[in-house]
Every structure is written in C-alpha cells, then in structure tokens.
C-alpha cells in the first residue's frame, strides 16, 4: 500500500492512519537492517537525487544509506561543487533535474517552502529533509517511532519540547505529528524563542523549565540554533543554560525518571548535560537508528512500488 500523497512536504494535515502506516512500514524495514546482508532490491531502477543546500550529517547520511539499502541509484548534490555557486536558481536546478528523468528528490533548503516550490516544478516525488524554520517531517516520524517502541502508545503521553522552538522545524513537525497521534505537547523556552502564534497550536506554553520537567514524561531537547538567530534572544549561552538547560541537578530535584530525546547535533553543556545525553534514559542513538528505517519507508511508500 502506497501513500495517498505524491510528496512528503510536512506533517501538517497528515492523518493518524497515514502516520501509523509509515511507522509500521519503517518497523518492517528495521528488521531488514538487522540482517547480515541489509539490502533489498525494492527500488532497483529508481533514481533519487539528494539536494542539500544546507549542511547536514545525520539526515543526509541517513537518506543516503536508506537509498542504498533499497538498491536505488543516487545522485548527491553539493552546493560547493554545483552551478548554484555560479548563480543558478532553484527553478533552473529543478528543470535540469526534470530533464534527467529523476524519480524522487530529497531536498534540504534554508528557505521555508522550497520543497513545495520544487514539487510544483517536477514530475517526481519530493521529500522535505528540512526547509528553513518550517518543517522536518522525517525527523518527527522517527521521533514518534522511537517513542512508540518504548511506550507502545502515544495516547496521553506528555512530551515537553524545550529550547529554541522559534527556529526549529523539528518542533513544528513534532507538534503536528504527536498531537495527531494523541500525545500531549508542551513548548518551553525563553519567551522570545516561542513562536508568536504558538498559542494557537494544540499545545501548552511554559516558560519555566522546572514546571515542564514536573509535567512531562518525555523531554525533547532542541539545539540553540545560533546560525539562524538574527537578534539577541537571550543574554548569553551561560544564562540560557542556567535557566533552561536540562541538567542532572534539575532532574534529581524533580525526583522522577524522564525519557530524553534530541534531534542533534547536541550543544553539550548548554541545552543538555553530557551525562544525560549518554544515560540509559536517553533515546538519542535509537533516534539515529530509526532514522534510516523511517526514510526507507517514506522512499518506498512514495515510490508507488508494491
């Protein structure tokens, strides 16, 4: 069964049944990854282009590995070695891709809406690997898969998303996905780093991290994205850590065990203590493992293969 949509541009508007279908398919592919020869011929003959206009490690490697595990032919686009450096527009890049008869495009771009623009320019399927401060759907899907593996059900699960929500595409996709799956979501961070219209989302807004810790079952800690900040949203990283950092002392005072997640990369000692990132309560490496399976599932389902 393929998806009812041609592209995966975000999780806004994606229904619970469709989310479950992707995650169940990812669970099947995770079994493939555990085999001695972790490769299937599912997308043999399909050509996939990875268009990464922004730096990436986990997401890019995860998509590339997923494509190889599915036996697809892949092309990896590097901005530094492309015509973009000579002034080529995204439209021109898209038209050249279309002329090459590519089946699917995975795109990461600094501009919100770039995957939507590309989807209107080519016949192949487009997967959003992160667009500006908008969405990152496959990250949210792997986060939900990881939580389902641990808790079995997301209904009523309390997830506090803590940190730089304003610039986080991961936060937005998780708000859409987690709430659709029945979880309760809270956003916590300095007031300037909470989006202006967040009070219109189906979430709680908290400005005290200790209140969020007391309320939550899961802490989804976000990176402070200094590269996207055009203003001083807080006085210093030290002050941010003092007021919003997830520390051993804070969790000890809470006297409860919480599950720790982070989309990476981690600013250790700023938003999250190293001891917590590496603890038995951390699901961070499970998130990375599940990323390959989720991206295999999305590629497979959008390909229309049976």
Describe this structure in words.
With 306 residues, this protein is of the alpha/beta class. Helices cover 39% and strands 15% of the residues. It has helices at 16-33, 58-69, 90-99, 114-119, 137-151, 169-180, 209-215, 237-244, 248-254, 274-277, 284-303, and strands spanning 47-52, 73-78, 104-109, 125-131, 158-162, 184-188, 204-206, 218-221, 259-261. It has a five-stranded parallel sheet with strand order 7-6-5-8-9, with helices on both faces. Strands 2-1-3-4 form a four-stranded parallel sheet. The mean pLDDT is 91.
Layout of secondary structure:
Blueprint (H helix, E strand, L loop, with lengths): L15 H18 L13 E6 L5 H12 L3 E6 L11 H10 L4 E6 L4 H6 L5 E7 L5 H15 L6 E5 L6 H12 L3 E5 L15 E3 L2 H7 L2 E4 L15 H8 L3 H7 L4 E3 L12 H4 L6 H20 L3
Parallel strand pairs: 1-2, 1-3, 3-4, 5-6, 5-8, 6-7, 8-9
Helix pairs in contact: 1-5, 1-11, 2-11, 5-6, 5-11
């Amino acid at each position: 069964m393929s998806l009812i949509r041609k592209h995966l541009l975000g999780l806004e508007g994606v229904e619970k049944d469709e989310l479950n279908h992707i995650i169940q398919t990812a669970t099947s592919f995770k079994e493939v990854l555990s085999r001695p020869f972790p490769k299937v011929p599912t997308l043999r003959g399909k050509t996939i282009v990875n268009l990464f206009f922004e730096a990436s490690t986990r997401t890019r490697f995860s998509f590339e590995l997923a494509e190889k595990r599915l036996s697809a032919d892949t092309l990896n686009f590097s901005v530094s070695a492309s015509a973009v450096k000579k002034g080529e527009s995204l439209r021109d890049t898209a038209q050249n891709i279309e002329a090459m008869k590519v089946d699917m495009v995975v795109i990461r771009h600094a501009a919100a809406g770039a995957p939507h623009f590309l989807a209107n320019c080519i016949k192949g399927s487009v997967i959003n690997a992160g667009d500006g401060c908008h969405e990152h759907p496959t990250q949210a899907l792997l986060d939900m898969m990881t939580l389902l593996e641990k808790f079995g059900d997301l209904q009523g699960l309390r997830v506090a998303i803590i940190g730089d929500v304003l610039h986080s595409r991961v936060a937005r996709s998780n708000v859409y996905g987690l709430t659709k799956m029945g979880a309760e979501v809270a956003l916590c961070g300095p007031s300037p780093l909470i989006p202006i219209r967040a009070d219109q989302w189906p979430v709680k807004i908290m400005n005290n991290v200790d209140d969020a810790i007391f309320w939550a079952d899961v802490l989804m800690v976000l990176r402070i994205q200094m590269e996207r900040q055009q203003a001083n949203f807080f006085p210093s990283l030290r002050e941010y850590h003092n007021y919003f950092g997830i520390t051993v002392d804070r969790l000890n005072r809470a006297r409860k065990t919480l599950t720790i997640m982070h989309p990476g990369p981690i600013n250790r000692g700023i938003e999250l203590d190293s001891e917590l990132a590496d603890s038995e309560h951390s699901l961070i490496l499970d998130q990375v493992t599940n990323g390959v399976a989720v991206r295999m599932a999305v590629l497979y389902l959008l390909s229309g293969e049976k």
